[in-house]
């Protein structure tokens, strides 16, 4: 909804946003016509090579069934030398791996005899290796949102999350306990350099 571009611009960054959701872009334009957000394809940005000093991709690259490689190639192409990139992807955390081993996840739904794909979740090493294969140098990796990882995957936490006070305390508890992050964090954030 343009909130990240808005916030970065409020902090003095010269930035723009690209999204393939034309209706979302139209709605942003109604609310804030001066915000530089554009409908487009992040696989083909149209910017010259090395154009951007920074590149932020939040929850995008995991949504291509054939894999994230084209996203990473295009990010590399448009990023300036020594430019920084931030990628976030769903984390295939310990809880999710154990649930997968015991068959807790149903097969994807079928739509007109074709599989409907939504997203991948990545293990830390898996995604750092992909970034390095595409030329990025990893500067930092962090886990975040362990509460979402718990409430989405374990019914007792979903039940707690349905109660406002318990949800607030649960989120605070999860955020304070660093040991919980590799076990249950919902997302990985990776800061890289070209």
Describe the protein's architecture and organization.
The protein has 194 residues and is an alpha/beta fold. It has a domain at 41-146 and 181-193: 3-Layer(aba) Sandwich (Rossmann fold), CATH 3.40.50. 40% of the residues lie in helices and 23% in strands. The protein is built from nine helices and eight strands. The chain has a four-stranded mixed beta sheet with strand order 3-4-8-7. Helix 6 packs across helix 7 (155-161). It is globular, with a radius of gyration of 18 Å. The model has no long low-confidence stretch (mean pLDDT 92).
Report a brief summary of the structure.
Helices cover 40% and strands 23% of the residues.
What are the SSEs and their pairings?
Blueprint: H1 3-10, E1 17-19, H2 22-31, E2 37-39, E3 52-58, H3 69-78, E4 79-90, H4 94-101, E5 110-111, E6 114-115, H5 124-133, E7 137-144, H6 146-153, H7 155-161, H8 164-176, H9 181-184, E8 187-193
Helix pairs in contact: 6-7
């Amino acid at each position: 909804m343009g909130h990240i571009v808005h916030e970065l611009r409020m902090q003095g960054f010269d930035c723009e946003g690209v999204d393939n959701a034309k209706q979302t872009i139209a709605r942003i334009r109604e609310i804030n016509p001066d915000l530089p957000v554009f409908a487009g394809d992040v696989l083909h940005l149209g910017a010259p090579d090395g154009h951007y000093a920074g590149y932020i991709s939040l929850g995008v690259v995991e949504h291509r069934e054939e894999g994230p490689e084209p996203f990473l190639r295009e990010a590399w192409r448009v990023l300036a030398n020594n430019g920084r990139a931030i990628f976030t992807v769903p984390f295939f955390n310990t809880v999710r791996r154990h649930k997968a081993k015991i068959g807790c996840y149903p097969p994807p739904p079928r739509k007109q005899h074709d599989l409907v794909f939504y997203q991948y979740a990545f293990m830390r090493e898996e995604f750092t290796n992909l970034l390095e294969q595409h030329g990025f140098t990893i500067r930092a990796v962090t886990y975040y949102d362990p509460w979402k990882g718990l409430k989405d995957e374990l019914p007792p936490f979903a039940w707690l999350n349905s109660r406002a006070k318990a949800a607030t305390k649960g989120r605070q508890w999860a955020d304070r306990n660093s040991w919980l992050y590799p076990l249950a964090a919902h997302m990985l954030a990776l800061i890289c350099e070209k």
